Amino acid sequence: MNINYILFWLLLPYFILASSSSSSFCNHHDTSALLLFKNSFTLNTSLYYSFRYHYWWLDDSSFSSKTESWKNGTDCCEWEGVTCDTISGHVIGLDLSCSNLQGQLHPNSTIFSLRHLQQLNLAFNDFSGSSLSSAIGDLVNLMHLNLSLSGLIGDIPSTISHLSKLLSLDLSFNYDYNYQRMRVDPYTWKKLIQNATNLRELSFDGVDMSSIGESSLSLLTNLSSSLISLSLGDTKSQGNLSSDILSLPNLQILSLSGNEDLGG
Ligand SMILES: *[C@@H]1O[C@H](CO)[C@@H](O)[C@H](O)[C@H]1NC(C)=O
Ligand SMILES: *[C@@H]1O[C@H](CO)[C@@H](O)[C@H](O)[C@H]1NC(C)=O
Ligand SMILES: *[C@@H]1O[C@H](CO)[C@@H](O)[C@H](O)[C@H]1NC(C)=O
Ligand SMILES: *[C@@H]1O[C@H](CO)[C@@H](O)[C@H](O)[C@H]1NC(C)=O
Ligand SMILES: *[C@@H]1O[C@H](CO)[C@@H](O)[C@H](O)[C@H]1NC(C)=O
Ligand SMILES: *[C@@H]1O[C@H](CO)[C@@H](O)[C@H](O)[C@H]1NC(C)=O
Ligand SMILES: *[C@@H]1O[C@H](CO)[C@@H](O)[C@H](O)[C@H]1NC(C)=O
């Protein structure tokens, strides 16, 4: 038997491994969507400083510019903050919390084309007073959405109620430099609570809920079997939180600080 022939079969597994690790596994569309998303922001490494008003323990070691490791031509499934489906190569998780991103989150942002996303965390970045686009409702597979402390203001789009698989939703502490907030209207609130029936964690601290009356608030009792954490501090809410909400059977965390009228 030829020695080259034997070597070939001995080394074959190595060649297969080597070639598969250098080719990109990540879905092609998702790769370019992520790169365009990255390029639409600047990196500002002093963001942590302005966030210390809410989280005094933050320092620059809590933050890292995760998108700096994202390079065209490499497998996006290996990029920091990115999780892929191991079979399809679609991006299903994106954790860019505390990533020093600064700039506008435009309605045409390519982030809204990542339809397979199940987890999206953009918390603790600075979207500089952008409003949340109604395109967020396209991400119907989301189970976890965290946009806490990211400088978003204005109306929460009604399409957020399309996210019927949500287990956790955190829109807390969104203000711009003029102290404008996010707002939720009664219609959007009602549709969200009625459609996202598996919600376990809801954080709306700082969201303007002044138009949400007592009857809309008490829709939360519909979530009684799932809700374990409810945080509605500083929401300007007028309605009394009825005793049936305060006694939700699975509620372990309830935060209402900063509301004059909440709690009856
Ligand atoms: C990535 O590289 C490819 C091939 O060089 C190029 O066609 C594409 O436009 C690049 N994508 C981005 C988002 O830069
Ligand atoms: C970084 O962000 C801070 C806080 O928003 C701002 O004051 C500063 O001008 C920004 N730096 C750059 C280089 O844009
Ligand atoms: C998205 O919209 C913004 C503002 O309207 C514009 O400046 C930008 O070029 C658009 N980006 C793309 C990729 O179309
Ligand atoms: C959202 O992300 C921030 C920053 O990582 C974290 O402190 C917060 O607990 C998260 N919210 C939820 C509901 O997990
Ligand atoms: C409820 O969620 C489903 C699934 O995403 C969606 O098709 C429907 O439009 C949503 N209903 C409302 C009122 O948002
Ligand atoms: C929510 O609760 C209200 C009042 O208890 C009830 O009328 C409504 O049918 C419930 N909706 C859902 C989707 O369970
Ligand atoms: C809330 O309930 C308390 C006690 O039940 C009552 O005194 C108060 O007037 C109520 N507030 C509103 C805004 O309904």
TrEMBL record:
- Does the keyword Glycoprotein belong to this entry? yes
InterPro entries assigned: LRR_dom_sf, LRR_N_plant-typ, RLP23-like
Per the UniProt record, the source organism is Glycine max (Soybean)
Q: Out of the domains of life, which is the source? A: Eukaryota
In this entry, which stretches build a coiled coil? none
As given in the record, the signal peptide range reads 1-18
The UniProt record lists the Leucine-rich repeat-containing N-terminal plant-type domain at 28-42, 61-85
Q: SUPFAM superfamilies under this entry?
A: L domain-like
Localization (cell) = Membrane
- The protein depicted here goes by the name Leucine-rich repeat-containing N-terminal plant-type domain-containing protein
Q: Which GO terms describe its cellular component?
A: membrane
Q: Which UniProt keywords apply?
A: Glycoprotein, Leucine-rich repeat, Membrane, Receptor, Repeat, Signal, Transmembrane, Transmembrane helix
Q: Which Pfam families match?
A: LRRNT_2
